[in-house]
Amino acid sequence: MATLGPAARALAIDVFAGTLVGGAVGAIVAVNLVIVAGPDQGYESTPSEVFEHSTILGLVTAAILVGGPPVGVLVARMARRRRR
């Protein structure tokens, strides 16, 4: 079994942690956006109801959900570089 070097281990930790945190933050922001600007059902709205209410809101919400994990990884990598 091969072991990871320090740089590879740091990258793996950043990717894992950044994906988890970025996904969670993205989900929280997306739900709050739907509650504030979405249909009357708020967080109980289905994706199809959000898109029926506003196509732009649906696209922005989807972009936040998809973009959260990569942004989380980038933030984790930048934070690690600053600590050096």
Write up this protein.
With 84 residues, the chain is mainly alpha-helical. Helices cover 81% and strands 0% of the residues. It is built from 3 helices and no strands. Helix 1 packs antiparallel against helix 3 and helix 2 crosses helix 3 (55-83). It is elongated and about 50 Å long.
Compose a concise summary of this entry.
The protein is an all-alpha fold. The chain has 3 helices and no strands.
What is the tally of beta strands? 0
Based on Cα principal axes, name the global outline.
elongated
Low-confidence stretches: none
Give the helix/strand class. Answer: mainly alpha
Strand content: under 5%
Major sheet characteristics: none
The sequence of SSEs as H and E is: HHH
Q: What is the straight-line distance between the termini?
A: 29 Å
How much helix is in the residues? over 70%
Global mean pLDDT = 92
The radius of gyration computed from the alpha-carbon positions, rounded to a whole number of angstroms, is 17 Å
List keywords for this structure.
mainly alpha; 3 helices; 84 residues
List the helices and strands and how they pair.
Blueprint: H1 6-37, H2 47-53, H3 55-83
